[in-house]
Amino acid sequence: MSSRTVIRGGLVITASDEIHADVLIEDGRVAALAATGTPAADAFTAERVIDATGKYVIPGGVDGHTHMEMPFGGTYAADTFETGTRAAAWGGTTTIVDFAIQSVGHSLREGLDAWHAKAEGNCAIDYGFHMIVSDVNQETLKEMDLLVEEGVTSFKQFMAYPGVFYSDDGQILRAMQRAADNGGLIMMHAENGIAIDVLVEQALARGETDPRFHGEVRKALLEAEATHRAIRLAQVAGAPLYVVHVSATEAVAELTRARDEGLNVFGETCPQYLFLSTDNLAEPDFEGAKYVCSTPLRPREHQAALWRGLRTNDLQVVSTDHCPFCFSGQKELGRGDFSKIPNGMPGVENRMDLLHQAVVDGHIGRRRWIEIACASPARMFGLYPKKGTIAPGADADIVVYDPHAEQVISAETHHMNVDYSAYEGRRVTGRVETVLSRGEPVVTEREYTGHKGHGAYVPRSTCQYLS
């Protein structure tokens, strides 16, 4: 039995177009669009009709950077795949790409299998995986080829966290050379972790233990230096590069220069860098611990460069790096020693709304909102046009969005499994009303109607920005 839905009367916004159109959905996919009020649209018939008059009809968000159930610093990220994907759906995100982790001494396959086991049957929305490569050796390099063939087409490396995820320049170069051959995309956490560890040790020796010192030791220049080094290593290897969570003016400048040189270099930033700053890290009574993440929050003056990068396409994607740790019992592990505060912030539920607020504030336009939150991440990670747009044949991952509703972001009302909000008390304009995942209503007029197990694993093709 086929199931049909029509969404009537909304303004359909994609990365390329805005049109008042009705959308016909059949068997979980977009079947047709027709301008509202035309005979073609009037001919659409369905069992379920959604009235989107006065609302936006947008593609479901694609969050290319989440960490559900991630082990870090002796604890685990507070969101499971069940709670995290439910919160994502509430926030208008219908696909996440999470990170499976290779542990040192173990194979990529073991890490990937472990993450499949965590996610399978538990997700409310569709999901894919990147692979964190922590141990580059001949076997790992061979496994990279196999993973690309089966739809895990991106590999993350760390220039930070010595002794945990850290790769040296030689290991990075070998992985990049392999990616150049197999079509994979190297994602880089670009911070000079060796130098940062020296600064951490020196700060603690001086008695500088508060959360704000986390931001002071992880210097913007060390992000820029690592970004530069990653770009040049990728250039030597002939490989594309995607730099995650870009936070600093100087790092944006490195990406801009590389792109001006014609290199296949891409950059991502996150809402926390666009809307928060070192002022938050400096909040008294250890409250600043809520905002400890890496790369760290920067002084507010860095935000202008990030917004400019998003407008000029020197930054292509806004993801969340969602990695929540509760203030009580988790962030508190670092009382008296900022280096022991678990690194990460909640945000998977807030991204689409915060970026709509950026439209309201004039930082970006509506189509650019959809581009950086939906279409570009889908293209970057080999999911387009199945995900990231509203077009015939695409998955019916669709959000009916009320651009006029006001809301106040708060831990009291959010659905993430974490005891604080990084945006507590912030008033924003715009709110998700109804969310479809493959045509199935996950949120219906502000009520959760989804269920765990609906979300399916999505194998990915290689980066679609590479000719």
Description:
The chain has 467 residues and is α/β, with parallel strands linked by helices. 31% of the residues lie in helices and 23% in strands. It has 14 helices and 19 strands. Strands 1, 2, 3, 4, 5, 16, 17, 18 and 19 form a 9-stranded mixed β-sheet that branches. An 8-stranded parallel β-sheet has the order 6-9-10-11-12-13-14-15. It has a two-stranded antiparallel ribbon with strand order 7-8. Helix 5 packs across helix 8. The two termini are 40 Å apart.
Low-pLDDT runs of 5+ residues are none
Alpha carbon gap, first and last residue:
40 Å
Overall pLDDT: 97
Estimate percent helicity: 25-40%
- Strand % is 15-25%
Short summary:
This protein is an alpha/beta fold and 467 residues long. The strands form three sheets. Strands 1, 2, 3, 4, 5, 16, 17, 18 and 19 form a nine-stranded mixed beta sheet that branches. It has helices at residues 39-42, 81-90, 108-119, 138-149, 169-182, 193-205, 212-217, 220-237, 249-260, 271-275, 278-281, 303-312, 351-360, 366-380; strands spanning 4-13, 18-26, 29-35, 48-51, 56-59, 61-66, 71-72, 75-76, 93-101, 126-132, 154-158, 185-189, 241-243, 265-269, 317-318, 398-408, 427-437, 440-444, 447-448.
Keywords:
467 residues, globular, alpha/beta, 14 helices, eight-stranded parallel sheet
Give the secondary structure arrangement, pairings included.
Layout: E1 4-13, E2 18-26, E3 29-35, H1 39-42, E4 48-51, E5 56-59, E6 61-66, E7 71-72, E8 75-76, H2 81-90, E9 93-101, H3 108-119, E10 126-132, H4 138-149, E11 154-158, H5 169-182, E12 185-189, H6 193-205, H7 212-217, H8 220-237, E13 241-243, H9 249-260, E14 265-269, H10 271-275, H11 278-281, H12 303-312, E15 317-318, H13 351-360, H14 366-380, E16 398-408, E17 427-437, E18 440-444, E19 447-448
Parallel strand pairs: 1-4, 1-5, 6-9, 9-10, 10-11, 11-12, 12-13, 13-14, 14-15
Antiparallel strand pairs: 1-2, 2-3, 5-16, 7-8, 16-17, 17-18, 18-19
Helix pairs in contact: 4-5, 5-8, 8-9
